[in-house]
Amino acid sequence: MPKCDAMKFLRIAAVPVISIVIGVPAFVSAQAPAKPSTAPAAPPVKLQSYTLPDKSASAGVPAGWKVKGGGAGMIVMSGPEGETITLGQIVLAHDGAFQVGQKGPDGAAIVMPNSATLSNKLLMIFQQSAAANGESAPQIKFISGGLLQVPAAMGQCGVFAVSNATTQVDGMGILCSLPEDAGQFFKNILIIGAVPEAVASKDAPTVFAVLKSYTIAPGWTQKIFAPFMSPAAAAPNIPEGVDPEFWRQPAYDPGYDCTIAGLVGPSSYHQAAECGYLGPDF
Q: What is the pTM of this model?
């Protein structure tokens, strides 16, 4: 299959991934919808189920691929021809002007403007990652992308398909950038599959199947999508005898319940009603 056909698959396949992973009903994009293909459906990709030791997430692993590691909702796997898939990577950012290689306070991996567009945040994350790994600056070209309608607690999410001329790698995935918290930190959650251009046409269905299979355990969903720092962390005085780390725990927000419902489905009639899953005449 020519490269253009592989890229067409990535454009089409990237659109429904987020809907499957987090249950988002609508996709918003400036691009015209793709016409349905008249070609016969490809046989389903066979996957072996894998669950992290900490039970935080699971995904399907294709034959010949290996899980390289992970934890706390993140799964990293690699394929036999240089493919890599990273599911649920959290990139902690601190609000500020971006400079390649600069890290933020308290373990933030990057400093970048929270007000930046989602596509620019993705570019900055790619640039920071390349610098951290001692690689040449990536030359990223957006093949396709679009914003998604998500609960307010999830901030902004979008799907993308990109190519990197520096490494000759194509990729597709999902990026969610959460709202800024009291300490000007904000989490960015990345799900991405990257494959060498030479095998993009062959591997695209496999990458899509793995992304589609990724699920996060309910308890971990709340941890992943919670703010890095609670509003109480900004308090000027910490009461005597209280562990300072107490103030860094995620603050509870009723909106998280609906975020979790969006990711794994409502767990009760009450949650379904509160989060808008039931019509007014139900």
A: 0.72
